[in-house]
């Protein structure tokens, strides 16, 4: 295959990220040897994020160890998490031999390529040529997916499948085809696409993809069985642990969900998305100490710009309320400014008032009465509805608790919080009312199925 010439590299903007000046100079020389003209430097994690936000480079050469207990893998994770990395941007990890396994372990966050020190400019160019060709080949697909033109994405895959380059990229094309089907909401076809991939090789990501497709068909038990085995076979595929945990929570197996995500979180201490999932699982399973610790870590230490949301502060407050730590809950709510509350979502605003009512029922009684009708009429998320149900029982408003629970039963979200809500009704000697709500919801679903 013909090498890419200097003219190609002259048009590319490089960002070299390394905390060691000598290493930065070495990578600059490599880039310039290939023909690069525009080469910027970044000495660390935060500066790199600022530079990438300001102007997206074409190629990022990032050392694995960035100093201050940060890594290139964490930087890549943050960029992907906040959708700051363009699909056609090349991200290559530069790593020492002893860090190689860590670089390639996180399958769901793999860089475009990696190169082990020491290396020559020619070797780096060989790797870059290969990635750049792949990025250029998939550029129409990236554009279609960004525009949510899934029909266009499918057409591209079909058109290039049998070309010479398409044969080279066949596994990536197969993966993209399955992912596009999931994005379209065609879970059954996505399942078949992932099964076709698995006939060739049992890739952990393809097995997880099949499980996601089964979840999309509400076939949770089958999805759980797949992920039970995936986390055993691929113990460094941490995204597999997250998926298994999510499935467990959907099935109401809170304890196993917590154990699963805790196992991954213990090995990825700075993954704050995973910490949030851990807090969610812990709170569902009644482990308020773990929920408080996990969310406290998120609120204190998730330093990516704009990372800590109103929902995060509410989750921390919720965890403290459940632990009976009202002073700490008050401090967590106090971390939300009035300006942020004004622009908060309806869910966040409703949860804020419900948590206030849990902490001080008498003081908030009039405010809840004013919001009561809106809460019943608004399609709120499951977590917010559970907050309102708790607040309703604290205020002695059983009718509000019943109305909100009835709305929960109509949605599929009841699966995730069923045990929690049932426990609340049991604690307030309202088991018959809960059973009647459950029966009514079942009859309604049967009627809907018969009508269709």
Structural features, described:
Helix 7 runs antiparallel to helix 9, helix 15 (about 270-285) packs parallel to helix 17 and helix 20 packs parallel to helix 22 (about 380-395). Strand 6 (about 90-95), helix 5 and strand 7 form a beta-alpha-beta unit. Strands 2-1-3-6-7 form a five-stranded parallel sheet, sandwiched between helices. Strands 4-5 form a two-stranded antiparallel ribbon. It has a domain at about 1-140: Rossmann fold. It contains 25 helices and seven strands. It is of the alpha/beta class. Helix content is about 70%, strand content about 5%. It is globular.
Q: Would you tell me the structural class of the helices and strands?
A: alpha/beta
CATH topology category name of the domain at 1-138: Rossmann fold
Strand content: 5-15%
Distance between the termini: 56 Å
Strand order across the biggest sheet?
Answer: 2-1-3-6-7
Task: Give a short overview.
This protein is an alpha/beta fold and 452 residues long.
Write the layout of secondary structure elements.
Blueprint (H helix, E strand, L loop, with lengths): L5 H5 L2 E5 L3 H14 L3 E5 L2 H10 L4 E5 L1 E3 L2 E2 H10 L8 E6 L4 H6 L7 E4 L4 H26 L3 H11 L3 H5 L1 H15 L2 H14 L3 H12 L4 H14 L4 H13 L3 H12 L6 H13 L3 H14 L8 H13 L3 H9 L3 H5 L3 H14 L1 H17 L4 H13 L3 H13 L3 H14 L3 H21 L1
Parallel strand pairs: 1-2, 1-3, 3-6, 6-7
Antiparallel strand pairs: 4-5
List keywords for this structure.
single chain, globular, 7 strands, Rossmann fold, five-stranded parallel beta sheet, 452 residues, alpha/beta, two-stranded antiparallel sheet, 25 helices
């Amino acid at each position: 295959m013909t090498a890419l010439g200097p003219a190609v590299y002259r048009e590319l903007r490089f960002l070299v990220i390394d905390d060691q000046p000598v290493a930065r100079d070495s990578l600059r020389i490599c880039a310039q040897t290939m023909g690069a003209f525009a080469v910027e430097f970044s000495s660390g994690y935060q500066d790199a994020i600022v530079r990438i936000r300001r102007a997206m480079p074409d190629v990022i050469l990032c050392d694995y160890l960035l100093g201050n207990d940060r890594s290139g893998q964490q930087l890549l994770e943050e960029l992907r998490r906040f959708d700051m990395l363009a699909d056609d941007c090349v991200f290559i990890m530069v790593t020492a031999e002893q860090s190689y396994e860590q670089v390639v372990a996180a399958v769901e966050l793999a860089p475009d390529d990696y190169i082990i020190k020491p290396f020559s400019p020619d070797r780096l160019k060989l790797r870059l040529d290969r990635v750049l060709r792949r990025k250029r080949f998939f550029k129409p697909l990236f554009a279609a997916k960004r525009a949510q033109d899934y029909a266009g994405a499918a057409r591209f895959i079909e058109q290039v499948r049998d070309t010479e380059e398409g044969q080279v990229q066949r596994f990536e094309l197969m993966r993209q085809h399955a992912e596009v089907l999931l994005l379209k909401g065609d879970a059954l076809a996505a399942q078949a696409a992932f099964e076709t991939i698995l006939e060739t090789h049992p890739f952990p990501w393809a097995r997880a993809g099949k499980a996601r497709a089964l979840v999309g068909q509400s076939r949770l038990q089958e999805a759980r069985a797949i992920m039970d085995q995936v986390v055993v076979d691929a113990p460094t595929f941490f995204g597999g642990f997250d998926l298994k945990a999510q499935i467990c929570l959907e099935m109401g197996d809170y304890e196993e969900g917590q154990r699963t995500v805790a196992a991954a979180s213990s090995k990825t201490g700075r993954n704050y998305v995973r910490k949030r999932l851990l807090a969610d699982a812990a709170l569902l399973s009644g482990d308020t100490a773990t929920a408080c610790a996990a969310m406290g870590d998120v609120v204190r230490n998730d330093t990516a710009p704009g990372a800590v949301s109103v929902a995060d502060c509410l989750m921390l407050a919720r965890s403290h309320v459940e632990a009976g730590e009202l002073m700490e809950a008050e401090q967590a709510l106090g971390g939300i400014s009035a300006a942020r509350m004004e622009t908060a979502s309806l869910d966040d605003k409703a949860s804020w008032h419900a948590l206030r009512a849990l902490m001080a029922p008498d003081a908030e009684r009039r405010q809840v009465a004013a919001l009561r009708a809106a809460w019943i009429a608004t399609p709120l998320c499951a977590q917010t509805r559970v907050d309102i149900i708790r607040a309703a029982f604290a205020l002695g408003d059983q009718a509000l608790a019943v109305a909100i629970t009835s709305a929960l039963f109509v949605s599929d979200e009841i699966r995730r919080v069923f045990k929690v809500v049932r426990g609340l009704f049991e604690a307030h000697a309202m088991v018959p009312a809960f059973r009647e709500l459950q029966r009514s919801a079942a009859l309604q679903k049967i009627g809907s199925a018969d009508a269709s």
